[in-house]
Amino acid sequence: MKIKSNADKAWDVVFVIVCLIVSAMCIIPMLNLLAKSLSGTDYLVRNQVYILPKGLNFNAYTTVLKDPKYIRAFVWTVFLTAVCTILSLTMTTLCAFPLIFENLKGRHAINVFITITMFFNAGTIPNYLLMQRLHLLSNPLVLIIPGVMSVYNMIIMRSFFYGIPDSLRESAEIDGATFFKILVLIYLPLSKPVMATLALFYAVGRWNGYSDALMYMRDDKFYTLQLLLYNIINNINQVEVATQEGFSAPGLSASLKAAIVMFSTVPILCIYPFLQKYFIHGVTLGAVKE
Amino acid sequence: MAKNSGKKSKGSFGVYMKRYWQLYAMLFLPLTYLLIFKYAPMIYVQIAFKKYSLVKSVWELPLAKNHGFEYFIQAFKNNDFKYALRNTLTLNLLDLVFGFPAPIIFALILNELCFVRFKKVVQTIAYMPHFLSWVIIYSLALQLLAPNDGLVNMVIKDLGAEAIPFLNDEAHWIGSYIGFGIWQNFGWGSIIYLAAIAGINPELYEAAAVDGAGRFRKIWHITLPGIKPTIVVLLIMSLGNILGGGFDRPFAFQNNLVMRVADVIATFVYRVGIKGLQFSLTTAVGLFQSVVGVFFLLMANFISRKLGERGIW
Predict the structure, then answer these.
(1) Is B311 left (phi over 0), alpha (psi -120 to 50) or beta?
(2) CA dihedral A97, A100, A106, A108 (to 10 degrees)
């Protein structure tokens, strides 16, 4: 092991400090939010809550949990995210798998057909008019079908499939296995990393997306959590559950808003660290050009 | 398949289909999906050149004035659109100048850390903002930057200075918008550069060390050239997207006080098109954006190839 000079050691320290500052900048907003959601009204009104809660209580959380509008949006978004993720993974697999066979006739034309959609988008209004024509406006399916497959994610999966040795499937082909069997028995069991990555990408996309609900959904029964959150933050049709509990409004609404944001964030923050080793690989695969 | 017209190859085509039909069956749903949701909307692009009416089908609509270019002319006479176009370019350009280098610098710093566990923890924390929606990021921004009860302004006031209107004043808003853009993406963006750095031949560093190169000379002469192809490809994509940009981020951050600098093409189209029902005008705007976007992408790719770099295709 080579000996480091003093200057080198000093730089090591500088880099560690920079990383600590950067990490703090990521965490402090979340801590501040958590503190506000757990703090007492008096402290919030007097602007005394920084990154630790003062006057610890769970009123904001119990209020949110008693609000049927919020619970409805939460359950609906969880359901929507689960359905979308499963459908999206299925569609993506069905698209990616056939394209790895070089002797598939018309493969080049299909690839061109798919790639064009990545470069040219008809635009917001043509998409809106199409939804209108298909009678999808305000239909809950509009939050599922139009975004069911991302070509970018399909390319990630295809790159992953290319990485599986041909010899595995060739021996199966010689044994007379059909393509469905090859997919289900050979490719899918080996594809856990890419499936986990794309499941995360699709789930996060659906959980966090709100523009489709904003544009296509008139019926607030089917508002997604993020759209509800948008309306709450911007005081559009605000949930008026707070006042009946007898708290002074500004303090509680600050902690209430914070609690709602926490509820909408925590599910994803609990999942992503466990999938880290997978999605790092997935992002890298997406960058490989064919 | 035109080659297979002879009798013998017809037979082999039957043999081929008997085996390969399953692959086409798999492709059926995804390709139908793309046809309906990516290609069919292109039929409606023609209303950019036509007078829109609810009762007629798009094919029967009469051509707009000025050989169909009426709505493009109207758009460029429209002050709101001119602001939106200017803002789209400005905000994307600022994102490029400040947001593009951030992940590269972060990746270089992470690569210099010697404690693997510490590096892992920092990475996990830095990826977190990428998983937050723009609505949540904006609500975090409000909690941090609000003039009265925002954390940052509370600290500023504790230090005896005046509160700063981070989100309510035009110039400050731009700074906050760009800042949170960097905040959201620097960690996630660094993944790809870290992968590229991991792919550099370690012998190069050993040889440089033998030649007496210090830490920064190694970064400058080995690491940066090693990740240059990745940087170029991502730069081309960003340049190609200079007139693009999503809807979620600007829409979440907008408020009435800053609309003059915050309205971008995507939000203009939503407001004037879907809310204001001016379908032809906003379709024209969208078409302009798409076509210029493809043009920018082709240009960036062309220039990078001329400079001897790999293009993106």
Answers:
(1) beta
(2) 120
How far is the C-alpha of B302 from the C-alpha of B313, rounded, in Å? 10
Q: Is the dihedral of CA B82, B88, B91, B92 positive or negative?
A: negative
Name the residue of chain B whose CA is nearest to A46's CA.
B149
Q: Which of B86, B47, B57 is nearest to B287 (CA)?
A: B47
Is the pLDDT score of B131 beyond 90?
yes
Amino acid at A150: S
Selection from A107, A118, A184 nearest residue A156 by Cα? A118
* Residues of chain B positioned with their CB less than 8 A from the CB of A183: 26
Query: What's the DSSP call for residue B169?
Result: S
Does B118 have pLDDT greater than 50? yes
Global pTM?
A: 0.90
Please, where are the H alpha helices in A140-241?
A: 151-162, 166-174, 179-181, 188-190, 192-208, 211-216, 225-233
Is B1 a residue whose pLDDT tops 80? no
Question: B167: helix, coil or strand?
Answer: coil
Q: Which residues of A85-120 are buried (b: 16+ CB within 10 A; e: fewer)?
A: beebbebbbbbbbbbbbeebbebeebeeebeebeee
What digits encode the pLDDT tens for the residues B156-206?
988 988 888 898 899 999 999 999 999 999 999 999 999 999 989 999 999
Mutation to test the A interface, candidates B1, B4, B28, B44, most A Cβ within 10 Å: B44
To test the contact with chain B by mutation, choose from A19, A150, A226, A278 the residue with the greatest count of B C-beta atoms within 10 A, namely A19
What's the distance, Cα to Cα, between the start and end of chain B in Å?
26
- B149 to A2: CB separation less than 8 angstroms, yes or no: no
> What is the b/e burial string over A162-191, where b = at least 16 CB atoms within 10 angstroms of the residue's CB?
eeeeeeebeebbeeebebeebbeebbeeeb
Q: What is the ipTM of this complex?
A: 0.89
Task: Fill in the amino acid letter for B73.
Answer: I
Question: What's the one-letter identity of residue A208?
Answer: N
Question: Which residues of chain B lie closer than 8 angstroms to A23, CB-CB?
Answer: 121-122, 125-126
B269: nearest CA in chain A? A124
